[in-house]
Amino acid sequence: MTVYADTPRWPRHGMLWGHLISDTSLAELHETAARADLPLRSFDLDHYDWPGTARERLVAAGVTFVGNRELTRALIGSGLRIPLVDRPAARVRRSAEHAAQLGLAEVPRDLIVGLLGHVDPLPAPGRARPGAFRMTRDDLSAPPRIEAHDESGRRAAIALLTQLDELARAAGAAGFTGQVLELGT
């Protein structure tokens, strides 16, 4: 049972990111990520994305550092890998399960209820349709983070958040926490 990390080389949010995987189980992966104090949001279906600034914490958590190819071989060998071609379908299944959990009739493009995982990024301006948005709420005491390229996307995010809050409250929660990506109409 080993948890592996590769070298951060993927740019996002102004820093470089690497991948963290388990050769055994997602439970082992989540436990190690928690010991390294990685945010739950950095989980992506079969791995955690980790910023280069977390290297010392990963070392302290007992992570083994390997090259990209060795990390990929270990993930494939674990049986946990979700191939790139299958990731969209995995997101659709996850979104449908989370929408059903809330009782949401219309399933958004990408939906996560709770703090574990993240939805796909909002496409760049010019690549997203009008009304597209990405919304995140991790803390009910803070306003949600809404990414939208136009006012219709911002309005759509607020309208969906209102609906998600109502459904979450009906299910006994204080409100909706999670993420949504909707690509507009």
UniProtKB/TrEMBL annotation:
InterPro entries registered for this protein in UniProt: DUF4031 (IPR025109)
Protein name in the entry: DUF4031 domain-containing protein
Biological source species: Brachybacterium sacelli
Pfam families tied to this protein: DUF4031
Domain DUF4031: 3-75
